[in-house]
Amino acid sequence: MPEGDTVWQAARRLHEALAGKPLTRSDFRVPKYATVDLTGRRVLNTIPRGKHLLTRFEGGLTLHTHLRMEGTWKVFGTGERWRGGPAHQIRAVLGTVDRTAVGYRLQVLELLRTTEEERVVGHLGPDLLGPDWDPERALANVLADPGRELGEALLDQRNLAGIGNVYKSELCFLLGVTPWLPAGALPADRAEKLPGLAKRLLEANRDRPVRQTTGLHRYDLFVYGRAPRPCLRCHTPVRVADQGDGTQERPTYWCPTCQSGPAPAPGSPQRWRDKYPRRTG
User: Fold this and answer.
1) Would you state the pLDDT for residue 278?
2) Which of 123, 213, 267, 269 is the most buried (most CB within 10 A)?
3) CA–CA distance, 126 with 75 (Å, rounded to integer)
4) Of 49, 56, 206, 250, which is the active-site residue?
5) Which segment of 114-123, 183-192, 253-262, 269-278 scores lowest on mean pLDDT?
6) Is 250 an active-site residue?
């Protein structure tokens, strides 16, 4: 699933391609909006909100999209062949005189009044890349349920918006604790560092084509996608297991030597061979 930095990049692409221009093409390929035509309306802007995208049009309309696991927005120039998947996966097309934005595999696509945006994003916590970022509130949200596993608290977009499985794993590694540690057991000095560290990681990557957390030339990430390769610090094999109630696939990576705290409960699904390849050296 795309994380906050990826969604920020998608918002920038859409904004640069469409903002300030009237639509010359409007095509929604979902039954609910099949007859809606926004041709002639000027695009005002596109902004990210956590993992959500809000594209606003004159006349007080907003297109709300969420990329989920496989969705993407692609932008093409005039006459350029669309490349993002087969035609049956296209859910929306927004075109101007010189650019066309094509939304593939969008699992969430909703037109609403701009005044109603809070209905779809009002539940979100402080946005790590947004103007509403509030580190004290974000930390208080994470620690509000002290018995909850830290990894689960970080993924909860109601606590802070923008973290997914990659940053969950990387943050826990950098804090030196496992994602299964109860949030209330996080040492005070590390808890104090958490909001600022999370923000720095996402800000550092919002302009990068390849996500990087290590600062090393050969290796992009410390643990995510590295099982069962050696930890970059201690050379212990990195481990991977699913975290959560099993309703979603949430591969979670950690180093059992560098990170203190509980491991997955006995019987939890564990993958010793990484089935999620990443460019991590």
Assistant:
1) 44
2) 213
3) 29
4) 250
5) 269-278
6) yes
Residue among 2, 48, 126, 251 flagged as catalytic: 2
For residue 237, the one-letter residue type is P
Q: What is the token pair recorded at 239?
A: 């481990």
Would strands 108-113 and 43-49 be described as parallel, antiparallel, or unpaired?
unpaired
Nearest CA to 142 among 97, 107, 166, 175? 175
CA atoms within 13 A on the CB side of 222: 22
Helices (H) and strands (E) in the chain, counts: 6, 10
The C-alpha atoms of residue 164 and residue 169 are separated, in whole angstroms, by 9
Is residue 2 part of the annotated active site? The answer reads yes
In sequence order, which ranges of the chain are alpha helices (DSSP H)? 4-18, 118-121, 135-143, 150-155, 165-175, 188-205
276, 260, 171, 249: CA torsion to nearest 10: 30
The predicted-structure confidence for 3-26, as pLDDT tens digits, reads as follows: 999 999 999 999 999 999 999 999
The crossing angle, in degrees rounded to 10, of helices 165-175 and 188-205 is 140
Among candidate residues 49, 51, 206, 226, the one labeled active-site is 51
Q: Tell the residue number behind the tokens 């099993």, with chain if given.
A: 246
Confidence of residue 67 (pLDDT cuts 50, 70, 90): very high
Q: Is residue 195 among the annotated active site residues? A: no
Give the position of tokens 């109630």.
245
pLDDT in tens, 137-161: 999 999 999 999 999 999 999 999 9
